């Protein structure tokens, strides 16, 4: 399944353990308009930052690592939703990897916008909401402030991660 879609990427970290449970291939995209005060990655805000990478090349990189699942982060992947949807769809159709995605949008904002919502069926977990510096909590797993939620889109919560919110899968 070849595609001409491209993603503006800042970096790809292989076998990281900081971006979700277990080993992960983390794709950090460029572009974020949320501009959260105290953001840990403000260099990702530039919508023209990073470099263009073909979805097929990113897929090959992800698929070549049999031990790692996948993380989409940034920036905000939902600002490049068409290309990230193409990548997520291919990952789900050709591998058994899970996909976690971080976004400054809330799940409610994403579900209300059909264009943004197109990626949800291919994600396993979304960490939603903007980072709020005044609520910063360094004890939280995989998020910076308690308004951010770890949402299992497949309705399969992991009770070992506090703050998770199971949802009925979208259809």
Task: Using brief descriptors, characterize the structure shown.
alpha/beta, 171 residues, 24% strand, 8 strands, eight-stranded mixed sheet, disordered C terminus
Structural class: alpha/beta
Strands ordered across the widest β-sheet: 3-1-2-4-5-6-7-8
Q: How is the main sheet built?
A: 8 strands, mixed
Strand content: 15-25%
DSSP E strands, number: 8
**Please, what is the average pLDDT?**
88
Percent helix = 10-25%
Q: Which descriptor suits the 3D outline?
A: globular
User: Order of SSEs, N→C?
Assistant: EEEHEHEHHEEE
Straight-line distance between termini: 23 Å
Radius of gyration: 15 Å
Spans with pLDDT under 50 lasting ≥5 residues?
A: 167-171
What does this structure look like?
Helix 1 (55-63) runs parallel beside helix 2. The chain is built from 4 helices and 8 strands, in the order E-E-E-H-E-H-E-H-H-E-E-E. By secondary structure, it is an alpha/beta fold. The relative contact order is 0.16. The protein is 19% helix and 24% strand. The chain is globular and about 40 Å long.
Layout of helices and strands, plus pairs?
Blueprint: E1 6-16, E2 24-29, E3 51-54, H1 55-63, E4 69-73, H2 81-94, E5 99-102, H3 107-111, H4 114-117, E6 125-128, E7 149-152, E8 164-166
Parallel strand pairs: 2-4, 4-5, 5-6, 7-8
Antiparallel strand pairs: 1-2, 1-3, 6-7
Helix pairs in contact: 1-2
Concise synopsis of the structure shown:
The protein is of the alpha/beta class. The chain has helices spanning 55-63, 81-94, 107-111, 114-117; strands at residues 6-16, 24-29, 51-54, 69-73, 99-102, 125-128, 149-152, 164-166.
